[in-house]
Amino acid sequence: MSTPLPQHVDVVVVGAGLSGIGAGYRLQTECPERSYLILEARESMGGTWDLFRYPGVRSDSDMFTLGYQFKPWRGDRTLADGASILSYIEETAAEFGIDEHVRYSTKVVGADFDTAAARWTLTLERSGETTTMTCDFLYSCAGYYDYDQPYAPHFEGVEDFEGRLVHPQFWPEDLDYSSQRVVVIGSGATAVTLVPSMTAGDDRAAHVTMLQRSPTWIAAVPSRDKQADWLRAHLPAGLAHTLARAKSIAFGTAFYQYCQRRPQQARALLTKMTTKILGDEQMVADHFTPSYDPWDQRLCAVPSADLFKAIKACDAEVVTDTIDRFVPEGIRLSSGRVLEADLVVTATGLQLKAFGGIAPSVDGTEVELSEQFVWQGAMISGVPNFALCIGYTNASWTLRADLTHRLVCKVLNWMDRRDAAAVVPRPDEGLEERPLLDLAAGYVQRSIASFPRQGDRAPWRVRQNYVLDSLTTLRTDLARTLEVTPRSAVRRDAGERVAS
After folding, report:
1. How, if at all, do strands 106-114 and 119-126 pair?
2. Is residue 243 pLDDT above 80, yes or no?
3. Do residues 143 and 17 touch, judged by C-beta distance below 8 A?
4. Is 169 left (phi over 0), alpha (psi -120 to 50) or beta?
5. In the chain, where does the domain assigned CATH 3.50.50.60 lie?
6. In this predicted model, what pLDDT tens digit does every residue of 398-449 receive, in sequence order?
7. 343, 357, 369: which is closest to 144 by C-alpha?
8. What's the family (predicted)?
């Protein structure tokens, strides 16, 4: 039987994934007087790391930065597998008692802020029933992907294909691809993970082809961090984690800035590294040299060069072409070549979905998100007592997520000191609109117009620089940009807290 919901709590966090559990830790340590709940639509915690079960699923950021600042990562791998990350999240939640605040199978389908009462009313789907509860502050940690519906372009003739078609987001538990011919459509992080994974182990495929419309920048990285291993062997766990994390942040920031400021040199460096591994300049030119510059789209990392090794061993190949149509035996390309396949995996990407599908409204009127600005990458103009968690596109998601958690706590504590019932960011005049995510990737360009905007200057600009953000975010002048509703101005019957 599911745990009953209270009628009201101070803070509701949406999503019990990596971000939601981190938010719970910060709320209970930095705002200990505030009651909170984490509402999770699925039956288990972990978010991405519980949902995705395709072969080889792993992080594409190092675990010293993807992991929590307050919980040392003790695993061996720098880029960890999905199961290890899920265990880490669960262990963190249990260790700090955060799991006691999670309510599962509870999907937020509506959220309306009553300005007179300075309170959110949430409409929930729970165990097949619709119910409501209220909270003072709503914090969305559901990310910006649509976990119910991936991006699935239509392929002509797909109904003629006699093999099996699957999408990584919904990987069947009973799927046996051993000794089969597999075509993976795509060249992003999922595809470059799937290809080497499906060519290894006792259940390995007969052959795997990665079919890409155009090349992606891919960099080989060590599977273990030797410096971090040394630190962990000689120093206390907390100190070693802090130093390894700092090193990873410094290297990641420096390399991103190098790519942005010296794109031609970055292209040459990545091309040289890949050529050294594959030993074939023409292959690198044809299949691993994109037209865009490094970090115009997210850079794919492959541990121990596993993708390149699979290609070099002839267990896998990369084909750069477009699809003409599916045929019974596989895929016919625009060049006329037919890729024969028993299994086709459509690693065609994800779709964006703001706030886990919640469309916030104020006094019964839905907020037009595309007309709003994001403040400090965390709160939205026009939506009081609301925050969202958005990670970096050029670094670990958790780096910005943790800054946002701490900023939310700073705002909540500031509200208490000022006896404020509600706050909402007030945009500067003359802000120049920019897309929230300034990334050329297709999944961003398809949907970003429906998201809130960022501005051209602080605190409305969503920077992709953790070093600068870590120095400035928590020092921001809240009084300058937050509009306050004092508690004395709200209805007396709605102004008191109800503990959970």
Report:
1. antiparallel
2. yes
3. yes
4. alpha
5. 8-148+351-494
6. 999 999 999 999 999 999 999 999 999 999 888 888 887 765 556 565 666 6
7. 357
8. Belongs to the FAD-binding monooxygenase family.
Who's near 243: CB < 8 A, 6+ residues apart?
231, 235
SS3 213: coil
DSSP letter at 441? Answer: -
CB 206 within 8 A of CB 180: yes
* Contact by Cβ (8 Å): 140, 405: no
DSSP notation for 141-172: -S-SB-SSS------TTGGG--SEEE-GGG--
Residues 447-470 as b/e (b if ≥16 CB within 10 A, e otherwise) read: bbeebbbbbeebbbbbbbbbbebe
pLDDT at 149 over 80: no
Helix, strand, or coil (residue 273) = helix
338 is written with which tokens?
Answer: 């037919």
Q: What is the dihedral of CA 353, 354, 358, 359, to 10 degrees?
A: -110
Separation between Cα atoms, residue 295 and residue 20, nearest integer Å: 27
Tell me which fold the domain 8-148+351-494 belongs to.
Answer: FAD/NAD(P)-binding domain (3.50.50)
330-333 and 338-340 beta bridge pairing: antiparallel
Is the distance from CB of 383 to CB of 360 less than 8 angstroms? Answer: yes
Give the pair of three-digit tokens for residue 375.
Answer: 């403040």
